[in-house]
Amino acid sequence: MAGYGYGGGYPAPAQAYGNPFAALTPSSFPPGTDPSLVACFQMADQDGSGLVDDRELQRALSSYNQGFSLRTVRLLMYLFTHTNTRRIGPREFTGLFHCLQMWRGTFERFDRDRSGKIDGPELREALLSMGFAVPPVVVDLLVTKYDKYGDGSRAIEYDNFIECCLIVKGLTEKFKERDTMLSGSATFTYDSFMLTVLPFLIA
Question: In the list 22, 73, 110, 199, which could disulfide-bond 122, CB 3.0-4.6 Å?
Answer without folding.
Answer: 110
